[in-house]
Write a structure and sequence with these properties.
By secondary structure, this protein is an alpha/beta fold. The chain has a single domain, classed as TIM Barrel, CATH 3.20.20.140. It is built from 12 helices and 21 strands. The strands form 5 sheets. Strands 1, 2, 3, 4, 5, 16, 19, 20 and 21 form a 9-stranded mixed beta sheet that branches. Helix 5 links the parallel strand 9 and strand 10. The longest helix has 18 residues.
């Protein structure tokens, strides 16, 4: 396996140091790194670059099995590597649904074979994500995939009795239920956020209370049974206040926000462009401000992409018929930098990026070998970012199999220039590598 000496990187955006990567580990740091480099080591000039632990996404749709026209595990993990990710959690809304040990093991093995990033399958909470019967949670937890996160994402576990049972069940193996908070009766036929813009456009609205009511119920259920609950893609200021109250009360709740909910608002929908149709919908500027503040103060724990690829025909149609969802793996770093670092409003640093996009997602997902410190002996999952290099988003240049990004032609700050997964360079000089010598099986 090739050894790499990363020279002069700013660890977590702070002090400069060298990193030596050998045999899948960080072998040495600082002044000792160069002295310990074996013959044939590839030297990388990282002057001015930020080094972070490999990024971890707790919310990725890889579509395989069943929707390979939109994405495959291979194409999705290539996109992940390009975005600086070394681990992604694959959502269960595949065909067939990832609700059995057999299906989650299939997804896990596809990730092993691809080798671009670690794939951690998320198991469905209910059979077929239909919300009527608990899935084989224990069998998925005991499988080779060792599932620890369960979600019916795309659908809410709206039955409170089933949600309670799921929360009780996962306690046995330290699992977590990740809830798609959407009261279905309040969102029938909804196309966008319910508010002034929806009224002016004549589009059926998705009220904020449909999210907030489920979150309030579920944090109380989690408190009642003493279990962990994770809230997917938080999108409203009211949700932030409920989560803040729950944390102050000592309830075991964690929450995520997507990059797009940190920068886009329902005003973007005025052009009826289906690229801006997403679930939960884009909210108001006031909601965006609350989400940014909550991410900065820790009320919202992490950023998760909710990478949701769709084939061209699913978006190249009228707004009402279009699928909901946006790609996000390759734009995540740039969007978060644009929202949280560039404005300078919240004193958000690259260390905070590491916390919210690597360390804490790995902890929530119970992946102990990801999100680790950049220190000797730790796994060599490393991402290098050029904080001064801006780039323009061109969908045809992205590595995902789908082009449904809302950031087309938008200039973003900060670009991922290298990614190392288990010490193997999956991205170098901004290019995804096809010759991953020594890539793990």
């Amino acid at each position: 396996m090739t050894a790499y000496l990363i020279q002069g990187a700013r660890l977590y955006g702070e002090e400069r140091a060298d990193l030596l990567l050998t045999d899948g580990r960080i072998a040495a740091t600082g002044s000792e790194a160069a002295d310990a480099a074996p013959v044939g080591t590839v030297r990388i000039d990282a002057d001015g670059l930020v080094a972070l632990p490999g990024l971890v996404d707790l919310h990725t749709h890889l579509r395989e099995p069943g929707r390979e026209d939109a994405e495959t595990v291979a194409s999705g993990t290539r996109a992940a590597a390009a975005g600086g990710f070394t681990c992604v959690h694959a959502m269960a809304n595949t065909t067939p649904t990832a609700d059995t040990a057999g299906v989650v093991e299939q997804v896990w093995r596809l990730g092993q074979d691809a080798g671009w990033a670690e794939v951690r399958p998320i198991g469905a909470v209910t059979v077929g994500r239909a919300g009527t019967q608990l899935a084989e949670l224990g069998a998925m937890a005991d499988s080779a995939a060792a599932v620890r996160v369960f979600s019916d994402d795309g659908d809410c576990v709206h039955d409170p009795v089933l949600m309670r049972r799921a929360l009780e069940y996962v306690k046995a193996f330290d699992g977590v239920v990740a809830q798609h908070a959407q009261e279905p009766r309040l969102t029938e036929g909804a196309l966008m956020h319910e508010g002034v813009v929806s009224a002016e456009l004549g589009l059926t609205g998705w009220p904020a209370v449909a999210e907030e009511a489920i979150i309030a119920r579920d944090v109380l259920l989690a408190e009642h049974v003493g279990s962990r609950v994770h809230i997917c893609h938080v999108s409203t200021a009211g949700s932030v206040e409920i989560i803040r109250w729950a944390k102050q009360r000592g309830i075991q709740v964690t929450a995520e926000v997507t990059p797009h909910h940190l920068v886009l608002t329902d005003e973007q929908v005025r052009g009826y462009d289906p690229q801006f149709k997403v679930n939960p919908p884009l909210r108001t500027a006031e909601d965006v401000a609350a989400l940014r503040a909550a991410l900065a103060d820790g009320t919202i724990d992490i950023v998760a992409t909710d990478h949701a690829p769709h084939p061209r025909e699913a978006k190249d149609c009228e707004f009402a018929a279009a699928a909901m969802g946006m790609t996000g793996l390759e734009t995540a770093v740039g969007v978060v930098a644009a929202a949280m670092i560039a404005p300078g409003e919240h004193a958000f640093t690259w260390a905070d990026v590491a916390r919210t996009l690597s360390t804490v997602p790995a902890r929530i997902g119970r992946v102990p070998h990801q999100g680790r410190p950049l220190a000797p002996g730790e796994p060599a999952h490393v991402t290098l970012i050029d904080p001064e290099r801006s780039w323009r988003v061109h969908p045809e240049d992205l590595h995902t199999a789908s082009e449904n990004t809302p950031f087309t032609d938008r200039e973003l700050p900060a670009q991922v220039v290298a990614t190392f997964f288990r010490g193997v360079a999956t991205v170098l000089d901004g290019d995804v590598r096809n010759d991953r010598e020594g890539a793990p099986a």
